[in-house]
Amino acid sequence: MKYCYHCGAENMDTASFCASCGTNIISTGYAPPQVATPIQEEKAKDEKLAMPETYLWQSVLVTILCCMPLGIIAIINSAQVETRYYAGNYSGAESASRNARNFAIAGLITGAVISILYIALFFFGALGSLNIFNDYYQY
């Protein structure tokens, strides 16, 4: 189909003049602009993937309260989520989000284990220094 550059009307491929306005349409190669309908705009929004969770606040809490090295790695990955998403690298954004979550969880678990060990060693060390058992056992 040929389109008239003057009025935008459709004409047959063999036509030399526009059937609507009479303008010469030979070899213009004009196609009317495509206007997006609301349905097409909605489909385009649906096709764009949602941004994955950044886990930034969790990473900051892990860095401050639990395990600084793993928390810093989690913060770096959290910062990369938005950058990769807006650059159109959706799989990279998903990967950075997954890494941020995993490092935040690993930091939380590591901090909890270290805290439990510290408390246990402190408790048993404090009991050992009370000399309760020295009265019963003479060496």
Describe this structure in words.
The protein has 139 residues and is mostly helical. It folds into 2 domains: 1-32; 56-128. Helix content is 56%, strand content 3%. It has 4 helices and 2 strands. A hairpin with a 6-residue loop joins strand 1 (2-3) and strand 2 (10-11). Helix 2 (56-65) runs antiparallel to helix 3 (68-86), helix 2 (56-65) runs parallel beside helix 4 and helix 3 (68-86) runs antiparallel to helix 4.
List keywords for this structure.
139 residues; mainly alpha; two-stranded antiparallel sheet; 4 helices; 2 strands; rod-shaped
Order the strands across the largest sheet as they lie in space.
1-2
Topology as a string of helices (H) and strands (E): EEHHHH
Task: Identify the overall geometry.
Answer: rod-shaped
Instruction: Figure out the total of helices.
Output: 4
Structural class by SSE content: mainly alpha
- Terminal CA distance: 108 Å
Number of domains: 2
Largest sheet: 2 strands, antiparallel
Average pLDDT reading: 80
Instruction: Work out the helicity level.
Output: 55-70%
Measured on Cα atoms, how large is the radius of gyration? 34 Å
Number of strands: 2
Relative strand content: under 5%
Taking pLDDT < 50 over at least 5 consecutive residues as the criterion, the unreliable ranges are none
